[in-house]
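sanity check this record:
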Amino acid sequence: MKLHLDWSSYENAGQGDAYAGIPAQGGDFARAVSVCIRDKHCQNPAVHAKGVMCPSFRVTGDPLHSPGGRVLVLKDALNGRLGAQPFADPRVLAAMDLCVACKGCQRECANQVDMAAIKMETQAQRNAATGMPLRDRLFADLPRWLRWRGLLRRLVVLRNRRPWLARLGERWLGIAARRRLPEPAAAPFVAPPPVAANMAEAADGRDVILFADTYARHFTPEIAAAAQAVLTAAGYRVHVLAPAPDDAAPDRDLCCGRTYLSLGQIDAARHEAARLLAALRPALAAGTPVVGLEPSCILSLRDEHLKLGLGSEAQALAKQVWLFEEFVAREADRKRFPASIFKPLPRKALVHGHCHQKAVGAMKSLRKTLRLVPALEFEFVEASCCGMAGSFGLDAEHAEISLRMAEADLLPAIRAAAPDTELVANGFSCRHQIEEGAGRRARHVALLLREALA
């Protein structure tokens, strides 16, 4: 069995454990599946009052749509009980279909079952067996389509404003007609000149690399500009990451490969990750912090990229990359980020955390960052996944359950908030779901901090 991700970190998992029942085939991937100890913690309704795990089980109540239920089906597949092409079997598709890769189980499961990564491998196996659906190819290739962003924007705007086109797209491609597609901004984020090779050698350590991901660069350029403004105001020299001089496609923006990973195109994700590492090589050598904005992108550099077989550079980046609010909080703890740059902002804010932020414990950093703003009162929404999960909520067959996930906790809390309450959500998909489901606009914390600049 050819594996698409590197599962070698699980080479000793489950050995000697009576509960493991490691399947006959699948190697280290089978061991990753078998770390589940079948305590059914993921199926306990009492657990779901707080935390993330498991959004699909929360709304369906079906054990199949829980990490433990998925493990049982995958063990059957790896034990040869589902035929010669087990990952093309409808039972595997049914088990994995509603997984939104929230990483909740990776944090909240007793043995940290990494169902998000398992889903990537499973989807890659299915793509290899049956081919990739056109809709998935279109969504996965978003970073490449944005080379023609003007044309793409016109097409998306037209589709969103013409219901008959949306219905046609649902019939032909399976993109939900009821959902609005995110529209690229009128103009992308424009970066300063490319970073010089020796940019990080200043003795004072005030240099920082800003990685403007696909979403921040093309859909919400104001967020990248805000982050740059805040870091500059705090005394940092901000260098916006650009492709390496020898990049084979220097006219194409850098990408973490998240859209490819999410839809099982591992080779394409590996290619994008290699481009990113090449561009970051001088910064990695100098130990310069890399700061990003989109949780699903930046946190994949600390997690999934380590399964792409890219060696020591990927491991170095995982230790050197920070979410914007993580970097601000860390520097504030070190007395290097001057809170005096902020003026009082007397208002209330309601904060929704991205699933991946919660999974890695990054919400503490967001709390610390918001506390830097005088007079700001804030509270966090106790909610699981918003349900959008990248392109998941745009799929015709998933649109309804996507909104049901949001209605479990998030959208009622948003609707209950006073009209003048500031809504904060750092996830691109989260903001999209909030606007569509509750008719309210949420903002990235970088925009709030820029507004608070004295």
